[in-house]
């Protein structure tokens, strides 16, 4: 079940003050407790970085960038480090935990689709068109890439249509009383009483 967190993207505020419930999750609690900086500033900044990277909520100003662009820009512009390592096991643990606890099912789905569509686009861009050709040494026809690339590009529209359906789910979650984790909000949660 996803944890209800603040969708206030004021990164000038302390992440832990805006989202105290996050400290109920062991990985985050340990991260918080191990931070010896004043007002837990270091861990707050890193939690904001993880949220900015991973959360596809429409209130996240970074949501429309590819993951690689976000990683580079967040590291350099927000964290202030060109050498920030997103692959550090502790950072990866925060990211995995954020995905598992803080994203709704639709948000997880959209996050994963965004990762794959970026990889797919890079793969298509790097693959050159080749035609089938006859290898005289082996006496066999070697398949070219043209057919596969064309099929992949045509299927891209289907993938984007699926992503649109996921985004529609997110809009319904945000406006239709569907809570994090796919649960229906109670009357008090949806402000009906």
Description:
This protein is mostly helical and 193 residues long. It folds into two domains: 103 residues, no CATH class; 90 residues, no CATH class. Helix content is 55%, strand content 3%. The protein is built from seven helices and two strands; from the N terminus they run H-H-H-H-H-H-E-E-H. A two-stranded antiparallel ribbon has the order 1-2. Helix 3 packs across helix 5. The longest helix is centred in the C-terminal third of the chain and has 30 residues. The protein is elongated, with a radius of gyration of 21 Å. The two termini are 24 Å apart. About 3% of the residues have low confidence.
What's the layout of helices and strands?
Layout: H1 15-18, H2 26-34, H3 41-54, H4 67-79, H5 89-102, H6 105-126, E1 133-135, E2 140-142, H7 146-175
Antiparallel strand pairs: 1-2
Core attributes:
7 helices, mainly alpha, elongated, 2 domains, single chain
This entry's quaternary arrangement is: single chain
Contiguous uncertain segments of 5+ residues: 180-184
What fraction, in percent, of the residue positions are helical?
A: 40-55%
Overall structural class, as computed from helix and strand content, comes to mainly alpha
What is the CA–CA distance across the termini? 24 Å
Number of helices: 7
The biggest beta sheet is recorded as: 2 strands, antiparallel
- Overall residue-averaged pLDDT value: 84
Please give the number of β-strands: 2
SSE order, one letter for each helix or strand: HHHHHHEEH
